[in-house]
Specification:
eight-stranded mixed sheet, alpha+beta, 15 helices
Length: 337
């Protein structure tokens, strides 16, 4: 695995230029549930604005979320920011080297801590991200969905039992690279695999069935309306609660699909709607439900008051705020129109 990584693995990714734990930590958080090709431009923009942990710790959360906007899973960004502040306060700004200490920081679990410890500090730790789970499940012939606690425990034991005595950085990166480049979910390139000789799935013709897929379930569907409230060329955005979907982001007022938008404007905000019309619907999928959005554009009589959790911006300026992906799409369409 080490030899293969050194010859065929990835070595030119922007976070591989040094063993800086800040850059490695940032990349590991961004890569959770996100492809490398998507992460690279976000990573480069992020480190251009926040080149080190101290800069990130001193930033306002809105700016952190704005740079994360479009990458999804926004709790990662909030946890990243909170962890940077915790390191600044508890460790005088120096990222801790011990995996146990890392796991006490927001957003860092066992595998992420191990990856940082191995890649930044050369510590002999096993990782178990999605790619590595797939490699080990196939190579070791581990049946069952890897998200199941017993199956995951078996994979952890396998991961720890196969750690080399040296070159842990190349081995750790190699395991991730093998899953991403060779032992892929569909059509794995088994002939190019350096460990195919004793791979259970390869030898038994079971690569299509291992790892065992997640049990299927029908996603619930939700219907909402979102209001694009316009007054004198400015659009109203609302700050969402810190917890829950799109926590801490700026979004559009939301109401049930069967509610009257004009009545909501009057009753919730004290605004009078001069006109309204529905825009084309759009849908957005989360891991646990699918959201169907009916946008409604409304022009208001001049507003008199504004809540602290509201801002009014021209649509072009609103695009610089931390917006959820479907809201950004709606605001972009408004700006283009």
């Amino acid at each position: 695995m080490i030899h293969w990584q050194q010859r065929h693995g990835r070595s030119a990714l922007p976070w591989q230029a040094s063993r800086d734990p800040y850059r490695i930590w940032l990349s590991e958080i961004m890569l959770q549930q996100t492809q490398v090709a998507t992460v690279v431009p976000y990573f480069e923009r992020f480190v251009a604005r926040f080149p080190d942990l101290a800069t990130l710790a001193a930033a306002h959360e809105d700016e952190v979320l704005a740079l994360w906007s479009g990458l999804g899973y926004y709790s990662r960004a909030r946890n990243l920011h909170a962890a940077a502040r915790a390191v600044a306060e508890r460790y005088d700004g120096r990222f801790p080297a011990a995996p146990a200490a890392m796991e006490q920081l927001p957003g860092i679990g066992r595998s992420t801590a191990a990856a940082i410890a191995a890649l930044a500090f050369g510590q002999r730790c096993a990782i178990l991200d999605g790619n590595v789970k797939r490699v080990l499940a196939r190579h070791g012939g581990i049946d069952g969905w890897p998200g199941d606690r017993k199956v995951e425990s078996a994979l952890w034991q396998l991961a720890e039992s196969r750690l080399p005595g040296n070159a842990i950085e190349a081995y750790t990166q190699g395991m991730m690279d093998l899953g991403a480049l060779v032992c892929t979910r569909g059509r794995p390139a088994c002939n190019a695999c350096p460990v195919n000789a004793d791979c259970t799935a390869h030898n038994q013709g079971r690569t299509a069935e291992l790892p065992t897929p997640r049990p299927r379930k029908t996603l619930p569907e939700r219907q909402v309306q979102m209001l694009l409230l316009l007054d004198r060329g400015e659009l109203m955005l609302e700050k969402r609660p810190a917890r829950g979907i799109w926590g801490g982001l700026w979004s559009l007022p939301e109401l049930p699909s069967d509610s009257d938008p004009a009545a909501l404007c009057r009753d919730r905000y004290g605004f009078v709607a001069q006109s309204q019309h529905a825009l084309p619907r759009l849908s957005h999928s989360f891991t646990h439900f699918r959201l169907h959005i009916q946008p409604v554009q409304m022009r208001l009589a001049p507003r008199l008051t504004t809540s602290p959790d509201q801002i009014w911006l021209p649509p072009a300026d609103a695009l610089n705020a931390a917006l959820p992906a479907p809201v950004r799409k709606l605001v972009t369409q408004l700006e283009n129109a």
